[in-house]
Amino acid sequence: MYQAPDILMMAYKQPVMQGQLALLDEKERHIPGSVQYTIKRYNKHPQWNLDDLGMLVYHCKKDDPSQNYLELRFCIAGNVYCRKNSVECNACKVNETPGCSERVDTVDVLSFRFLAVHLSQFGKPRKPESTLSQDVLDFRHPSSFSKILSLCGRTRLVLEALLNHSYTDSMENIFINAQSQMLLLYSLECMVGEKDVEGFQCKFLANEADREKIIRAREVLLQHIGEPLTIKELSRKVAINECYLKKGFKEMFGTTIFDFYQSQRMEHARYLLYEKGLSVTEVSIMLGYSSISHFSTAFKKHTGLKPCELLLH
């Protein structure tokens, strides 16, 4: 099965550890005969620097068309969430929301999945010079892929409306269905005139066996947090060409192998220091560093703090 890159990880430019995410609100629903959507709102850490991103995921299985779908994913920061949104708080009543203690900055991750049976209503007879967007809607493009989308002003307005509306029950379904159709329109507009996905998809990633090897490479890295591996060693372990491994890893996970591995090591170091109470020396040895100073330099580059400073917080 085709596995698209994690949009939150791509926006953050490094892997996001589960412990870093404080979920404020979550909605997951399937509107009958229409879109299946998920909206997750997380508390944004003050030091996080994220890019707003959109992604179109095209999933096509020629041997099982019932599994075909088109998915839109978005990750945006800079919105706010009121923890008393179920009942209007006193600050909101007097229009003092900017200073409301119940409002927090958010990172919002939204996904909208359209099944082939739903998209078929928009199909038209194929023309000799059909666009990529038309082939995608009709599920005639031969291989699965993902495409990064630029977020225009219209898309941002729709996303903000989806996060801040006050509709409930059936009215909410109608509203979200209408807004998701607009997102689909704006996303497909980005593809008008394009003939293929070669410009944004590594060709070899159409091979499911190679994608599985790259996913396996990520698992191997996580299993060797304290035993640094070279890319040559990693490529041998998963039996894939070094160049393919580097390009494919960046395409699938939105980060380089080195940056992923280093950030995982430093997040594990933070856990060992802060949660487990181990000493800087112990952690440095566990992660395979030749000296405490090398470990401290790497830790500060990742977290902005020296290991000893973290222990004082």
Overview of the structural elements:
By secondary structure, the protein is an alpha+beta fold. The protein is built from 13 helices and 6 strands. It has a 6-stranded antiparallel sheet. A hairpin with a 5-residue loop joins strand 1 and strand 2 (36-43). Helix 5 (153-164) packs antiparallel against helix 6 (169-189) and helix 7 packs across helix 8 (231-238). The longest helix has 21 residues, at 169-189. It is flat, with a radius of gyration of 22 Å. The mean pLDDT is 79.
* SS strand fraction: 15-25%
Gyration radius, rounded: 22 Å
Question: What is the rounded distance between the termini?
Answer: 44 Å
Low-confidence stretches: none
Structural class, from helix and strand content? alpha+beta
User: Which term fits the overall shape?
Assistant: flat
Strand arrangement in the largest pleated sheet:
1-2-5-4-3-6
Secondary structure: number of strands: 6
The number of helices is: 13
Helix content: 40-55%
In sequence order, what are the helices and strands, one letter per element?
Answer: HEEEEHEHHEHHHHHHHHH
Largest sheet: 6 strands, antiparallel
Arithmetic mean pLDDT = 79
Draw up the topology in text.
Elements: H1 7-12, E1 23-30, E2 36-43, E3 53-59, E4 69-82, H2 90-93, E5 103-115, H3 116-119, H4 132-137, E6 145-149, H5 153-164, H6 169-189, H7 208-223, H8 231-238, H9 242-253, H10 257-275, H11 280-286, H12 292-303, H13 307-312
Antiparallel strand pairs: 1-2, 2-5, 3-4, 3-6, 4-5
